[in-house]
Amino acid sequence: MAQGKYSRVDGKKSSCSTATIVVVVGFCLVGVWMFMSSSAFPGQSTDLPAVTNKQKEVSTRSSSNSQFEDNSGDLASDDQENTNSDTNEVVESNSGDDSNTTESNGSDKNSNSDTSESEKNNNDSNQSETEKKDEDKKPEEDLSSEILKETNAQNRAFSTQADESASEKKSQNVYNWKTCNVTAGPDYIPCLDNLEAIRHLHGRSHYEHRERHCPEDPPTCLVPLPVGYKTPIKWPRSREQIWYSNVPHTKLAEVKGHQNWVKVSGEYLTFPGGGTQFKNGALHYIDFIQDSLADIAWGKRTRVILDVGCGVASFGGYLFERDVIAMSFAPKDEHEAQVQFALERGIPAISAVMGTQRLPFPSKIFDVVHCARCRVPWHIEGGKLLLELNRVLRPGGYFVWSATPVYRNTSEDVGIWEAMSKLTKAMCWELVVINNDKLNEVGAAIYRKPMTNECYENRQQNDPPLCESKDDPDAVWKVQLESCMHKVPVDESARGSKWPETWPQRLESPPYWLKTSEVGVYGKPAPEDFTSDYDHWKRVVSKSYLNGLGIDWSSVRNVMDMRSIYGGFAAALRDLKVWVMNVVPLDSPDTLPIIYERGLFGIYHNWCESFSTYPRSYDLLHADHLFSDVKKRCKLQSLMAEVDRMLRPEGKLIVRDNVETIAEVEDMAKSLNWKIKTSYSKDKEGLLCVEKTLWRPTEVETVPYAIE
């Protein structure tokens, strides 16, 4: 201190006069008083306060995110350790620093020299302890604290120029949402309701008008809600009963009511579980197929099927009882809202048609393909449409055909049966069994696709022809159909040469054809990459999603993973009463065959276009680093409008992405009057969970190409 030279620390007598001593003592007392006044506020100390305040700030901000402390590491790919213990360590060091400071202040009353010496010792001690803790701390622990400190700007005393500039940019870029004015109204599907494009088609004989015709500039308006829309009925009750006001269409009930498809019952639409081929219930029909051919083995050998021309998808809805999932599809046609009924019931389905292009699925993936009076002319034009089913059917898989040519003797039916018999024989499909269901008065023929190329090589005529070797059976996006067949893989290490493991073992085991010599999506050997991804999503779901996001999972049934890799997220939800549509974007690694191999299902899609589903189809959408990828090619506002279209009111959107993209999505969600359930960031990565509301804009935007 400034007065230290006057103290008697050297043991010699002072030669000062009494007056001098009095003056010196007076100055000392004043100095002590001033020091005591300043040290009463440890935050203003010149040595320790910076550390103390910093630690207190970190502790406060960590507590605000306490519900994620065990889960925050889920944002990164590596395992996280002891985030809570790190926070506790900071709190304990804070209390120790405070008490030490207070005790040294009390001893300052005795002498200034003692104060100086004690302060010096305490500073040295604190410095050494801090250095020791810094040495003991792991790098990721320090990084975690810094992230928590920097990402909670509202706790800082001063805003930054970046914050101020960003805030001004937001105010200048207000999203001007409007409600879509289109002929389809609340049922608008942009790529299927592009009426202008449909008007310019040269023909419709191959169902071109039911195929996708996406507008060049995707809409940014919001689809209106049906009048009187209500929160959907929960599964499993929804399989039998939905609100009429949510899907207010009665035509199908009038046309198909006698076949027990759907009936109107007051404020409800009810589904007795019937269909054209199973008027007395889908479960009986499902068991009829199993009894006809034991090798079908629902829920064991057969796990994933394709249901063509599904109607209201009661067949797929009741296959859940047998641990089977069905990718059901039907066109948006005169069978008004059939796929919309299915989705409202909680049954997976998409709007699609067998027309001029390949289906959006890879080759050799479905265990069974089913057609019950699906109204597809399989036998015409060289069997082009049946050859497309051959492409997606696994070698050794079954085609179940339940249609009038199997069991009726009209001249038309007999003619179709003869043409089908000739075609399937030329395709080397084996007719395994024909059986009649006496209760429903229908019959079914079951064919089996070969597992070798022997039949192909021994055919007298190459008709249908084998595809050229350069033809890629897995290239499907807007690829025209070919009237040819691809050879069956013969290499034992190739996909399709063996049947997958039985369910549920296939869910957790890497496919046999993933090679350790191949590098996976995340840089590890492919089988290890698969396992690591699954472990990661199990940890994320159990630690964060199930309990940390405020989601009532009993209200969740229809789920979409908008950017799936190995299907790990869907696999981690296996024990919940949900189904997951795994979407593999066109510019992502082609891992969809892996997803099917493990007993899950999915589809290819370009997120710069609308998805082939009805509005309000999904309870939960999951987007892992999708938005940051999409914004490189198209407008985020268009994607957000599509998310709003697919998501039900009260539905949730979970976004995992970089912090910049998270901020953009959160701003758009707020502009849509959505509820922000969770917003969290760490290591430049963020997690956002938002909930859609019933809000619709009052301002209307007419979409010219969607108006009749």
Would you give an account of this structure?
With 708 residues, the chain is of the alpha/beta class. Among the domains are: 172-235 and 501-707, Rossmann fold; 251-257 and 272-345 and 365-488, Vaccinia Virus protein VP39 (Rossmann fold). The protein is 35% helix and 16% strand. The chain is built from 22 helices and 19 strands. The strands form four sheets. A seven-stranded mixed sheet has the order 7-6-5-8-9-11-10. Strands 14-13-12-15-16-18-17 form a seven-stranded mixed sheet. α11 links the parallel β6 (325-330) and β7. α2 (49-64) runs antiparallel to α3 (83-107) and α3 runs antiparallel to α4. The longest helix is centred in the N-terminal third of the chain and has 25 residues, at 83-107. It is globular and about 80 Å long. Mean pLDDT is 82; it is low at 1-25 and 32-157.
